[in-house]
Every structure is written in structure tokens, then in C-alpha cells.
Amino acid sequence: xxxxxxxxxxxxxxxxxxxxxxxxxxxxxxxxxxxxxxxxxxxxxxxxxxxxxxxxxxxxxxxxxxxxxxxxxxxxxxxxxxxxxxxxxxxxxxxxxxxxxxxxxxxxxxxxxxxxxxxxxxxxxxxxxxxxxxxxxxxxxxxxxxxxxxxxxxxxxxxxxxxxxxxxxxxxxxxxxxxxxxxxxxxxxxxxxxxxxxxxxxxxxxxxxxxxxxxxxxxxxxxxxxxxxxxxxxxxxxxxxxxxxxxxxxxxxxxxxxxxxxxxxxxxxxxxxxxxxxxxxxxxxxxxxxxxxxxxxxxxxxxxxxxxxxxxxxxxxxxxxxxxxxxxxxxxxxxxxxxxxxxxxxxxxxxxxxxxxxxxxxxxxxxxxxxxxxxxxxxxxxxxxxxxxxxxxxxxxxxxxxxxxxxxxxxxxxxxxxxxxxxxxxxxxxxxxxxxxxxxxxxxxxxxxxxxxxxxxxxxxxxxxxxxxxxxxxxxxxxxxxxxxxxxxxxxxxx
Length: 495
Hints:
By secondary structure, the chain is an alpha/beta fold. The chain has a single domain (6-383), classed as Alkaline Phosphatase, subunit A, CATH 3.40.720.10. The chain has 13 helices and 13 strands. Helix 6 (173-187) runs parallel beside helix 9.
């Protein structure tokens, strides 16, 4: 039997696709990420169904969307008995199969030092989590430094969060996470397959690169922010209110074009730092003779608005928040290299792809399916179903190859034709010419919600568990006094 592939999954936080030169960016060069794309498959239209850190990561771990796993926003996490309920994480599956499993950097688990199936963790949590005494905090302390709140930076209020970090480049969190990863890869046993996840905390806000990374990046080279619309304006008040809270403490009531472009400059500098980190990890794999036998996946949990529609951050389903990079090298069914795959794929498809690379069964549902390696690969994903919840606003989305339907609890319902209106300026909801499309998307959306709600509560099923556990020899005690229903019931369809 062929030896299972090693796996390295690199996931920066809050990286939108169009700030990478291999995805068309002209304001920055990302040579190391571009080189990965040239050596594998670049997915042009990859989307996150949950444009928030924690829901995206919970679904990635379990292969189940937010309706099925119950993690809707950043203040939730998986139930403690999720393994017993059939929501087994991919690192746990690989650990059980004999892989060496390790995680470096930000995972955003609750509690923050949970393993969730990884045997080894080196932790550098969210850049905003300054009170978490993780491994990176200890490192900074050893250097006479500390995690900084945005208010400690010079000019943070004036420039609305675009600041210069006094922390040297070699001590920056993304540099440190990459360095610890490389040290581990040099020491790892070469006679056992391994799976390593690298959670780079950048380019997530605060937008705080060191001064040296800002050299050569100019405001005039930045893409102009997308104009606000009637649809987008429904979120402005909430975004402003949330960002005034102590975690950020910045007022975006008046968000000037100058500050939007400055934010983009600082974000681009942080992306440059991510590119350097990727280059170091790839170089180490090659130096150790591991590159050709390692599947490398590069993606992000969600994007960043960066002033588009007047917003910062993410959480809703506009394209800058959900369109993510996704690159895969050395997949199990690797085809020609330097391929740009044109059809839609989901962030959650990474779950099945990792399990497939390890030679394991993977979930057989619409939430996750192995990434295709060529345009003629079948089956293809027909749509992305997403759900979000953030500071009282909840929403769900159905996006197919051309159209996107969104419904939010703030009263907004939106339908966009992304082929003719990629910047989502024209809301087509309830227009006579799009009613048939709207009805079809609504039908699929309703089915996804209903199926997800049922599947998310399978752990409570009585008759299903009794019958499917042993359909020939049913539980003989059923119907007698003292019988206890099977709980939790873990029925997962796999392929």
C-alpha cells in the first residue's frame, strides 16, 4: 500500500483573495504564495460559508456546517461530547490512524489550549486576545516585550487602526509561528506520516506591520474601496457600534477615503509578512526532502472588508468577506500543475481533502467534498450554503455559480447577479425578471436549513439509533421498564 501523504495546512487569518498577486493583485507581490499556485491547483472561486473566525474553524474541523455543528458565531464552540455525537475532528481522525499531528499558531479553540485531536500544539492566539498567556506571550516576555492592545500604538485613533508595530520583524507573531513550524519540521521523524496545521494570526486586524514591511507599498497603488449601497448601509450602525467597544475602541462613524487606503497599505504589508512565512515553511520542506511527499494546502477562514462599503472586518456575505484564496499542491489525485480551477469550491472541502489524502473515509454530504484537481472532475459543487451570526444580526446565504441570495434578521434580503454585478451594487430581490431564480435559490436554501437542523440533532434520535445500530437484532429491552435510549447517537454518512 502506498504510504499516506504528509499534510501541511497553512491558514492565515482574515486574508482575502484579491490581495495576492496570483489572484490578480497589482498593489503587492506575493512570490512565495504565487510559487505554490504555480506548482498546484489555484481555486479561483473559493468561498467561506461562515465569514467569522470560530464558525469557519469549527466547520473545518468537523466537516459540518454551522447548522449541523451548532457553532454560529465567535462566542460559541463545539459541544464537549462532539466526538461521541459523530462530530469527529480531522486531526483526531488522523491521530487515530497513526499520523503525527501538530498545530502551530492560532486555532481559536475554546478553551484556547484545547487539543481537539492534535497531539502537539504551539499556541499564538488571535492578535486581539492580549490577555491569553500562550506560548507567544511567554516568548515576548523573554524578549522584554508584550502583546499590545491597539490603544498602545501611536496614531491608532487618528488613523483608525492602521498603525506601525514597534515589535521587530523577527519577533512578529507570524514570523514566530512560521519559525516554530520550521523547527518542528526539521525534527519530525521521517518514518511516520505527519499532519501539521499552521494558523498564522495575520493579516487580521490590528493592521500593525513593522516599518520595514511598509517600504514600497503606496496608497495610490491600492484598489479603491467598493461604494456603499442601500443594502450595505443596513449594517453600518452595527459595525460602528461594535468597533467602539474596548476590544477595538475605534470610531468608524466618519471613515475617510484616506484612512481606508492607509488601512489597505498596512494590510498589504501584513500580507507580505504572510508570504515570507509561507516561503520559509516551503523551503524547510524542500531542505528536509519532504516537499514532494507532502500535500500543502493554503487558504484562509474568511476575508476582510478593508473599507469596502464603508466597513471593516467581516461577518456578512459580501464578496470581500467570503471570497478566499485556496491553493493545493500534491493532492492525492494530482494532475497537471499550474492549474486555475474556475468553478466554486468551499473552505469546508479542505476537511474531506485532508481525510482523502490520508486514505481515510470522508463525510458524504454537501458540506464537504474533496477538492477537484481539474476542470473535468466530477462531481462539482453546485452552490455554497452559509450561515452567520454576529452581535445580534443573523443571516444565511445561498450562492451558486452566478447568483447570491442572502437573508438577514435586520430585515435585509438581497439577490445579486455576480456575473453582471461583481461589486454587488444592484439588489435584484423581488424583481420580476429574477423571480424564478429567486424561488429556486430559496427552495435550496430552505432544504439546506431543514436538513441541517435535522442532522444537527441526530444525537437525540431514538428509533433511528435503535434500528440502525443493529437492523437485524433490534434492542430486545425496548418497550420494557427501565429501558434507556441510546445517547448520544453518532450516525455519520461517509464515503
